[in-house]
Amino acid sequence: MTALPLAAGFGDTMTGGLAGPMGLFIIVMLAIGTVLLIRNMNSRLRRLPDHFPADPATEEKKNE
Predict the structure, then answer these.
(1) How far apart are CA 64 and CA 56, in angstroms?
(2) Of 44, 62, 46, 42, nearest to 54 (Cα)?
(3) Angstrom distances, CA of residue 22 to CA of 19, 27, 63
């Protein structure tokens, strides 16, 4: 079987090689954003009351 050359241009086509560091930067920024969002949501959930007052409209429907 003969080997056919690939015309898709696979391999390192950039001279600077910026794809690896840029991908790492994006992943780190996404991880930092996720951590900050989780911390913010946890602080908001801690501020919620343990129990909410009952809604009178739903209480009337239960009694019927």
Answers:
(1) 13
(2) 62
(3) 5, 9, 62
- Write the pLDDT tens digit of every residue in 15-59: 667 778 899 999 999 999 999 999 999 999 999 998 888 877 776
For CA atoms 27, 28, 29, 30, the dihedral sign is positive
How many Cα atoms occupy the beta-carbon half-sphere of 11 within 13 Å?
A: 7
Here the tokens at position 54 are 């009952």
The residue whose two tokens read 């009351």 is 49
* DSSP helix/strand/coil, 7: coil
Provide the pLDDT for residue 20.
85
